[in-house]
Every structure is written in structure tokens, then in C-alpha cells.
Amino acid sequence: MKDGAAEARHAWIEPGVFEVAPGVHRIPLPLPGDGLRAVNVYAIEDTDGLVLIDSGWALDEARDQLESALGKLGYGFEDVQRFLVTHAHRDHYTLAVTLRRTFGSRISLGADEQPSVAAIIANRQDAEARRLRRWGADELLAKLADAFGGKPPKSRSPYELPDEWLEGKVEIPLASRTLLAVPTPGHTRGHLVFLDSASALLFSGDHVLPHITPSIGVEPERAELPLRDYLDSLRLMRSYPDMRLLPAHGPVTGSSHTRIAELLQHHEQRLDQTAEVVRSGASTAYEAALKLGWTRHNRKLLDLDLFNQVLAVGETNAHLDVLVTRGILTSSETDGALHYTTPPE
């Protein structure tokens, strides 16, 4: 039964092209490693060709699968007029960049992604080390140094500037429909979702995912309070009519509002858990992350791979900082590290 359930849970990653609404097709593309496993690209048929929401990672296998899927629809890469990219993470952005070099497709990206894209292009890699020290994670920083020969890993993915920065809410008229780009910061500063209100479709990127909780603030130029931004963005999406959820990772599901409510509840529970580990003696984000459980299997921090340990500590810091804004905890800096405690009675 467990194997069957796991197989059903991951059925969405199977290659192919799947119509999810008239003129809208879901195309799962592979990712390296055993983490997320695939990313959904959505192809929207338009009068002059295709508009793609997200693009996939710049991998040969992903490019080949995308070409095959578009071919089944009767199109080629030359028919892709525009990429509307939800955010600048490599699994959403970089294949668009490589295809643009040959076929000239336009790329649109949220304006608040500019600081992180600039940092990636300039290969500025010191921000993460500074954050880890501030989070009290010197041990983790040392492990990363050992793993990568004393140097942080370099991105092998191509990055270039988009053709267009989308500022604020923007209507995007297509021949067959009008999309509304809505800023939803939290996962990244410039994350966008795209709403097709007439068809009740929400292209949610990584903002709302059906099976997992998105990581918070994973970017070179991290926002001051990424979890606060994320929770505000969830509440914003709840103010729109309920729509079918077309996520970047996971199957299409029937109700965005249902999943949004689950995500809001999850983070309130996580805030409670985080406050409790501080009451029990954790002081820094790293110490708190060591005491918390991770993934739905409640794994220990040190049982995760190094990349996911970094994500976990960053996530813990995001929760701690929101607890400070709510007055549940206080923070102070000692020797470059933030320490958290409960306020005096």
C-alpha cells in the first residue's frame, strides 16, 4: 500500500503533455537529483504560437522532453513567443535563457527579482556565508567549506537578464485570454503568480504547492522578513475567487483556497513549534533547527543533505524573525550571531 501511494503521489512527474484546460497544457520536465524530481511548464496556445509559463532547468534532457512535448502539439521552439517566468530559480528560468539565444523568445520576470539576478550574474556568493554566521551555523558553514574545497559551489546554470521586468500587478493580454501577473513575495522577493480569471486557473509557480510547503527566501538577496511576506501573499491570494491550482511541482488540483488554508495553518503550527524550542533552550536559528523535525517524516536536521540543511536553517530564521515581530520572542546580536529568547515577564 505504501509503495502504491508513493507511486500515485509522483504520477505527475511522468513525461508527456497533458491538457488541463482548453488550450492549456501541462508539460513536466525532469530535474537533477532526487528532490523535487520535476517541474511543470504550462504551454498556452495563442494565435501566433505559444506562451509558456516557466521553462525548466537548462538541462539537455529537459530541453529534449520539452521539444518532444511541443511537437506533439504541432509546435516547435520557434513557435514560443514568450516565457512568463514565476521566479528566477534555475528550474524555472534557465532553459528560457538558453532557448532565447537561438530562437529569440521574450522572457518576462518579476521586477523584484532584479537584486538576486544581478548577484547571480556577478557571481557574488558571500551573502550566504554571512547569513549562516548570523544564524549561528558556523558548523554548517565549515561542512560546506570542506565539501567544496573551501569555496562555495558555483552555479553551472546560465543566467542573463530578462527582456522585460514586470512591475506590480500587470495585465497580459493574449489572443485567447487575459492573464493577470500578481506579485507574491516570500519564496523569492519577486515571485509572481499568473491568474486566468475567466477560466478560473491559477498558475501558482512555487507560491502554492499541493504536496509540499515551499522554501522561504532562498535567494542571494534575501528579503528582511520573507516569511511575513509569504503569509501576506497567501492571504492576498485567498482574497481572489477560488481557482484550479496549476502548480510548478505536483499535480493540478481543484481548489487553490483549500491548499492556501492548509499552508497558513502549517506555518502557524510551525511558529508555535519554533517558539517552543526556544523556550526549551535553543538560542540561534541553527540550534532551533537542530531541535525541530524536518519533512513529513520528521527527520533530524543532520540527517538531511547539506543543501537542505541550509534551507532548513534559513526557514527557521524566517520563523524566528516573525515571532519577534509578534512580540513572542526577542532577539539580540552577540559576536555577529542573532540570539533569540522569550521576553521577560
Summarize the structure.
By secondary structure, this protein is of the alpha/beta class.
Q: What secondary-structure arrangement, pairings included, does this model have?
A:
Elements: H1 2-9, E1 18-21, E2 24-30, E3 38-46, E4 49-53, H2 60-72, E5 80-84, H3 90-103, E6 106-110, H4 114-121, H5 127-134, H6 138-147, E7 164-166, E8 170-173, E9 178-183, E10 192-196, E11 201-205, H7 226-238, E12 244-247, H8 256-279, H9 285-291, H10 306-325, E13 330-334, E14 337-341
Helix pairs in contact: 7-8, 8-10, 9-10
Walk me through the structure:
The chain is of the alpha/beta class and 345 residues long. 36% of the residues lie in helices and 21% in strands. It has ten helices and 14 strands. The longest helix has 24 residues, at 256-279. The mean pLDDT is 93.
What are the defining features of this structure?
345 residues; alpha/beta; 5-stranded mixed β-sheet; 10 helices; globular
Number of strands: 14
Question: What's the Cα radius of gyration?
Answer: 20 Å
- Coarse morphology: globular
- Unreliable stretches, pLDDT < 50, 5 or more residues? none
Treating each run of at least 4 consecutive H or I residues as one helix, how many helices?
A: 10
Strand content: 15-25%
Largest sheet: 7 strands, mixed
Mean pLDDT: 93
Gap between N and C termini = 51 Å
How would you name the oligomeric state of the polypeptide chains in this document? single chain
- Give the topology string: H per helix, E per strand: HEEEEHEHEHHHEEEEEHEHHHEE
Helical content band: 25-40%
Helical/strand content category: alpha/beta
Largest sheet strand order: 1-2-3-4-5-6-7
